[in-house]
């Protein structure tokens, strides 16, 4: 009873305080649930919200003034992060001029960080999204949970009130692994979320220490920000004895989609209009084919984000999900476009081809692959002292990149994290620069 009392009291205190808030989280939570499962009536509400956003953007921002009177979302241009970064003021609504709105920022792990402002309603909506989708993963407010993320804007009292433990992955060393493992073995710890790669490293460490299902009380693990390989996912589920539930979220927006038991990512159509557009133009990509994820935020009134190209690739499912949830789904989320690799002929290669092959080479504990030019590739390796297979690795990479590929292999003690705390396997500086310069006409024939 004592273990249940703490979460209950925290949850009760939160909802009592929420009744005094304006806007209130509980109202947004109820709205999300309603909009995701109602039929024609819900569609009418979404259309009304979209029209309101388009009119608001055209009448209160400099950037969208020339689209005044446009009522079709397709008439609006696709927006890229660089456009906002270069002229942020043109996207800010005059309705909120003079208001002290919080200035948020993307992590910048795939390019220059973008700064943006959120209204009080949008911040409230984000909280409601997290509560709603975490609830689908078995979490309730007040439960003890761990978050693997770099967060420096919360005070210790806030963590205590939320019953949250922060695992800051800036430095993943023996001390970090020991402390995180100890916290996870707390019988009250029921939920783990945050950066996928550090969670994977932690699960592998626990496995090496002899841990297995039954030694943890976790109900679910919800990785974000990075993708997991099949092997990494299996390791997490086997060691922690609970399901991995993928969540697709971003700093700019909030929770965009979450995985159901059938393995598909259900789109959060209650808060966003999400389009999957072709790789080389702005027409819709047919279901079943890879396309760019373009998002319109129905609640981004302080800085309207309309048809914003978030930089990710996905495949829209051609049919209804067998789980019974009527919302559209992504059959696959393939990661950020800048994380894809181009061979020396500018053909696209799935990063998982290299990830899975490099994992088969004995003696490699960590790696990072960087494409720095059209035909130049750098591979950082953390290996055992006896590792002697650099020539084998180069030959393996050229099999996919092309025989003329200039592959440079460097040895490091440990792969360092990015400033965001993430530890991506793949970084494509060359493609990032190409996209920044508007060079979209690449040969996107994907190798798998």
Topology:
Layout: H1 2-18, H2 25-37, H3 40-60, H4 81-86, E1 103-105, E2 115-117, H5 120-136, E3 144-148, H6 156-162, E4 164-167, H7 174-184, E5 189-195, H8 196-208, E6 220-224, H9 230-240, E7 247-249, E8 255-259, E9 265-267, E10 272-277, E11 290-297, E12 308-316, E13 329-336, E14 341-342, E15 347-349, H10 351-358, E16 364-373, E17 376-383, H11 390-401, E18 406-411, E19 426-428, H12 429-436, E20 443-447
Parallel strand pairs: 3-4, 3-5, 5-6, 15-20, 16-19, 17-18
Antiparallel strand pairs: 1-2, 7-8, 8-9, 9-13, 10-11, 11-12, 12-13, 14-15, 16-17
Helix pairs in contact: 2-3, 2-5, 8-9, 10-11
Structural notes for this entry:
- This protein is an alpha/beta fold.
- It folds into three domains: 1-115 and 267-333, Rossmann fold (3-Layer(aba) Sandwich); 138-244, 3-Layer(aba) Sandwich (Rossmann fold), CATH 3.40.50; 340-447, ANL, C-terminal domain (GMP Synthetase, Chain A, domain 3, 2-Layer Sandwich), CATH 3.30.300.30.
- It contains twelve helices and 20 strands.
- It has helices at residues 2-18, 25-37, 40-60, 81-86, 120-136, 156-162, 174-184, 196-208, 230-240, 351-358, 390-401, 429-436; strands at residues 103-105, 115-117, 144-148, 164-167, 189-195, 220-224, 247-249, 255-259, 265-267, 272-277, 290-297, 308-316, 329-336, 341-342, 347-349, 364-373, 376-383, 406-411, 426-428, 443-447.
- Helix 2 (25-37) crosses helix 5 (120-136) and helix 10 (351-358) runs antiparallel to helix 11.
- Residues 438-448 have low confidence and may be disordered.
């Amino acid at each position: 009873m004592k273990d249940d009392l703490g979460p209950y009291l925290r949850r009760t205190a939160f909802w009592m305080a929420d009744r005094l808030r304006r806007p209130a989280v509980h109202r947004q939570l109820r709205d999300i649930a309603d909009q995701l499962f109602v039929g024609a009536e819900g569609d009418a509400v979404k259309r009304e919200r979209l029209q309101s956003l388009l009119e608001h953007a055209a009448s209160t921002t400099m950037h969208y003034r020339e689209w005044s009177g446009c009522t079709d979302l397709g008439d609006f241009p696709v927006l890229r992060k660089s456009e906002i970064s270069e002229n942020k003021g043109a996207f800010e609504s005059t309705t909120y001029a003079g208001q002290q709105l919080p200035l948020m920022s993307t992590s910048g792990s795939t390019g220059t960080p973008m700064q943006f402002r959120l209204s009080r309603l949008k911040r409230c909506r984000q909280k409601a999204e997290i509560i709603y989708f975490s609830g689908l993963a078995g979490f309730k407010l007040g439960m003890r949970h761990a978050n693997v993320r770099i967060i420096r804007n919360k005070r210790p009292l806030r963590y205590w009130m939320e019953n949250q433990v922060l695992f800051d992955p800036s430095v993943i060393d023996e001390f970090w692994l020991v402390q995180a493992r100890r916290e996870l073995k707390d019988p009250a710890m029921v939920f783990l979320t945050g950066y996928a790669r550090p969670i994977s490293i932690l699960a592998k460490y626990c496995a090496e220490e002899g841990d297995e299902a039954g030694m943890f009380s976790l109900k679910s693990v919800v990785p974000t920000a990075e993708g997991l390989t099949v092997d990494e996912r299996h390791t997490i589920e086997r060691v922690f004895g609970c399901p991995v539930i993928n969540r697709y979220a971003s700093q700019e927006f909030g929770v965009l989609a979450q995985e159901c038991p059938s393995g598909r990512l259900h789109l959060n159509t209650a808060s966003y209009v999400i389009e999957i557009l072709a790789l080389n133009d702005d027409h819709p990509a047919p279901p079943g084919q890879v396309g760019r994820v373009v998002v319109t935020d129905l609640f981004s009134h302080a800085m309207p984000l309309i048809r914003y190209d978030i930089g990710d690739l996905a495949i829209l499912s051609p049919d209804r999900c067998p789980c019974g949830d009527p919302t559209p789904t992504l059959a696959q989320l393939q990661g950020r476009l800048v994380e894809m690799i181009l061979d020396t002929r500018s053909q696209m290669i799935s990063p998982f081809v290299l990830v899975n092959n490099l994992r088969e080479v004995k003696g490699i504990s960590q790696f990072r692959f960087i494409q720095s030019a059209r035909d130049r590739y750098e591979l950082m390796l953390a290996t055992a002292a006896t590792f002697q297979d650099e020539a084998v690795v180069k030959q393996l990479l050229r099999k996919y990149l092309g025989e003329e590929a200039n592959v440079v292999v460097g040895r490091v003690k440990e792969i360092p994290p990015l400033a965001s705390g993430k530890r991506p396997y793949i970084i494509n500086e060359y493609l990032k620069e190409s996209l920044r310069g508007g060079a979209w006409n690449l040969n996107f024939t994907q190798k798998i």
